[in-house]
Amino acid sequence: MYWHTFHTSNDASGALARAVAAEIAQRLETQPRVTVAMPGGRSPVAFFDALSREDIDWSRVTVTLVDERLVDESHEDSNAGLVRRHLLQNRAAAATFWPLVTDPARPEADIARLDKELPAIDLVVFGMGEDGHAGSLYPGAPELDEGLDLDNPHAGLVITPPSAPHQRLSLTLARLLTAEKLYLAIQGRAKAQILQASGWALTGRWPISYFVQQAKAPLEVFWAP
């Protein structure tokens, strides 16, 4: 785990945008396309805005999500809507978007679509909550063990957060760890303490620990107090 510390969240967002853009550009030198799984929620807005202005060949980039709420894209809580408003603009308007949810009422159909059609993921950018959840892999969710099972053959699953609105469709840990590189964006001392503690105990109490204590994909942390 590589830890980058910044004075402000804007500094962290800008640095993360530059790092992700540089990694995309480097990969485009040796492969025809790059697929990046992006975070949801309100925290990534500044990162999205900064990344959208980076000068890379966005026409060869596919953007998908780490997780999505089971709501229509027009809903204010839709991660797809957030990505369309804040990332798929400026230079990044040329990117291809691959939504996780096409019909909130039929998530099982979207899971089947993920299993069959989701492109191989090169990079993952995600966030963490103060309860140690990563993406939508929430502690206490009845589906958590399935989501953390590295032998799970499915790319996604429905998650029922115990303390957050809306069911979610989340990529599984197994699918996320097929990426070549992971970027974690967090803010605040409480999250930093949880992340540090998660390096000592592999536990469903802190799902983030499953990302910290793995050796499949390098994890870079971008943190601001």
UniProtKB/TrEMBL annotation:
<dbReference type="GO" id="GO:0005975">
    <property type="term" value="P:carbohydrate metabolic process"/>
</dbReference>
<feature type="domain" description="Glucosamine/galactosamine-6-phosphate isomerase">
    <location>
        <begin position="10"/>
        <end position="211"/>
    </location>
</feature>
<comment type="similarity">
    <text>Belongs to the glucosamine/galactosamine-6-phosphate isomerase family. 6-phosphogluconolactonase subfamily.</text>
</comment>
<dbReference type="InterPro" id="IPR006148">
    <property type="entry name" value="Glc/Gal-6P_isomerase"/>
</dbReference>
<dbReference type="InterPro" id="IPR005900">
    <property type="entry name" value="6-phosphogluconolactonase_DevB"/>
</dbReference>
<comment type="pathway">
    <text>Carbohydrate degradation; pentose phosphate pathway; D-ribulose 5-phosphate from D-glucose 6-phosphate (oxidative stage): step 2/3.</text>
</comment>
<comment type="function">
    <text>Hydrolysis of 6-phosphogluconolactone to 6-phosphogluconate.</text>
</comment>
<dbReference type="InterPro" id="IPR039104">
    <property type="entry name" value="6PGL"/>
</dbReference>
<dbReference type="GO" id="GO:0006098">
    <property type="term" value="P:pentose-phosphate shunt"/>
</dbReference>
<dbReference type="InterPro" id="IPR037171">
    <property type="entry name" value="NagB/RpiA_transferase-like"/>
</dbReference>
<dbReference type="GO" id="GO:0017057">
    <property type="term" value="F:6-phosphogluconolactonase activity"/>
</dbReference>
<protein>
    <recommendedName>
        <fullName>6-phosphogluconolactonase</fullName>
        <ecNumber>3.1.1.31</ecNumber>
    </recommendedName>
</protein>
<keyword id="KW-0378">Hydrolase</keyword>
<dbReference type="Pfam" id="PF01182">
    <property type="entry name" value="Glucosamine_iso"/>
</dbReference>
